[in-house]
Write a structure and sequence with these properties.
five-stranded parallel β-sheet, Rossmann fold, flat, 3 domains, 461 residues, alpha/beta
């Protein structure tokens, strides 16, 4: 086993070196091709050669810090693609920063720099898109695989075993299973397993050991780890957390303390910056494009009934903080003088013009102003009134967790038809699914589908 582990470590180091050198070659090649395209010449002048070298050095420094060279065996690779693009965004920014402060910016073509950095990013992604299916095919054929020893209770080990069997491209094979509750082995029917003997040193030939136990059995985990003190393989802990509602669960290192994230917002670091840029850029562009429509709708509201054009309503947003959401007024000004009631949207009194803009969701358009102000996001869970939040947070499990991101104009629940007087619990399920699976690509998908599903909806009143 030790000899095989050394071979695997050597192979991993060799592969990492090859990937790093390939990325470096990609940066240099992309810069040269961009120069050829921009200046119609195969021979670079000296200052561009130096610029190319500086860019290559920046890539060698920046890319490793984005984790693109760590093992992605069995992991979601869409995250890797995002990290590559973010890394090259930083490289481009650093290069621009250097040129600006060295007063050399006028000596270089901005179009060349843009074509170079974007071309390098796309080439890096394309090479990985080509390489990973090849690697997966090799693993499916039994090559470049790692054997795993599972130790834990029958349910947790069964979960790990069947997941690995369903995803052969992950490159892991279960060699043996040691059960702490051998009497429950029926969950692993047809799979050979052995009884774990507490206090006995565990010897194994597998490259990795996975301890599969609930968090409540921390002492058992500690004992198993002690029994593996002679092991030279990777030892990992897979906590059974089936009884937890998990949102963006991960492991964090804070002040040298390892914390198990159970329920965390995805809006941190680069994700928060990316989301903010998306919201501000798109909302500003939309407000400019629809400004004539807004003017016509405002005139229609003003002429249809007495009162203000906008209706300001207190809603609860990110981190449970209230804000005032804007809508075009669709009801008479005194319709809620006796208080607000949950539901019954069909029965609420509206003006004739108000009924039209509610049915078509045009009354929601002023919320792009909220997005521009930073109160809301374009995509996110729909916000609710404070009085209803105070009620529902005690009635619906996980209700307050939807406030871990900014409230949105549209969302996953809305494009799936859960709006108006539909089942609130189903809406919360959709909202929490969105938070758990958030990505820029998911936002784009929801925005695209909103155009076809969101505005005209049978549940919109």
């Amino acid at each position: 086993m030790r000899q095989r582990a050394k071979l695997l470590m050597g192979f991993g180091a060799y592969t990492s070196a090859v990937v790093r050198l390939t990325d470096l070659a990609v940066v240099l090649l992309a810069g040269w091709v961009a120069y050829w395209w921009r200046f119609d010449s195969l021979w670079m002048i000296e200052r561009y050669e130096w610029g190319l070298i500086v860019g290559a050095l920046l890539s060698a420094l920046v890319l490793p810090n984005f984790g693109v060279y760590q093992s992605w065996r069995g992991r979601v690779r869409a995250v890797l693609v995002l990290r590559i693009f973010l890394a090259y965004l930083v490289i481009g920014g650093a290069l621009t920063f250097i040129l600006f402060f060295s007063k050399l910016g006028e000596s270089f073509s901005r179009l060349w720099i843009f074509a170079w950095i974007s071309g390098a990013a796309f080439l890096c992604v394309i090479l990985r898109l080509i390489a990973y299916p090849f690697i997966n095919r090799l693993r499916a054929q039994g090559r470049n695989r790692r054997s795993v020893l599972l130790i834990g209770d029958a349910h947790s080990c069964a979960t790990a075993y069947y997941h690995l069997r369903e995803v052969p491209s992950a490159g892991f094979d279960v060699g043996r299973i040691l059960l702490t509750d051998a009497d429950e082995a029926q969950e692993l029917s047809g799979v050979s397993s052995e009884k774990y003997n507490p206090g006995v040193s565990i010897e194994h030939e597998e490259e990795e050991v996975w301890i599969c136990l609930p968090l409540s059995q921390g002492e058992t985990v500690k004992a198993i780890q002690s029994a593996l003190s002679l092991s030279t393989g990777n030892v990992r802990y897979m906590p059974d957390m089936r009884d937890f509602r998990l949102i963006n669960h991960n492991v964090s290192n804070v002040a040298s303390l390892f914390l198990l994230d159970l329920s965390c917002t995805p809006m941190t670091g680069w994700s928060r910056l990316l989301k903010a840029f998306e919201d501000r850029f798109i909302s500003m562009a939309i407000l400019i494009l629809i400004s004539p429509v807004l003017a016509v709708l405002a005139l229609g509201v003003k002429l249809s009934s007495a009162g203000p054009v906008f209706y300001r309503q207190e809603r609860v947003g990110w981190n449970g903080k209230p804000f005032y959401m804007l809508k075009f007024r669709s009801m008479p000004i005194d319709v809620e003088k006796d208080g607000v009631q949950w539901g019954g949207a069909m029965n609420k009194k509206t003006t004739r013009f108000g009924a039209f803009i509610r049915r078509t969701s045009l009354d929601e358009l002023p919320q792009f102003i909220n997005v521009l102000k930073g109160d809301m996001s374009i995509v996110g869970p729909r916000p609710e009134r404070t009085v209803f939040v105070d009620r529902f947070k005690h009635e619906i499990p996980g209700y307050m967790q939807k406030h871990m991101v900014k409230a949105g104009i549209t969302g996953w629940a809305q494009i799936n038809g859960w709006r108006g007087d539909t089942d609130l619990a189903k809406r919360i399920e959709c909202d929490l699914w969105y938070i758990e699976n958030w990505s820029l690509w998911l936002d784009c998908k929801i925005i695209f589908l909103t155009v076809f599903k969101g505005f005209l909806n049978q549940n919109a009143y």
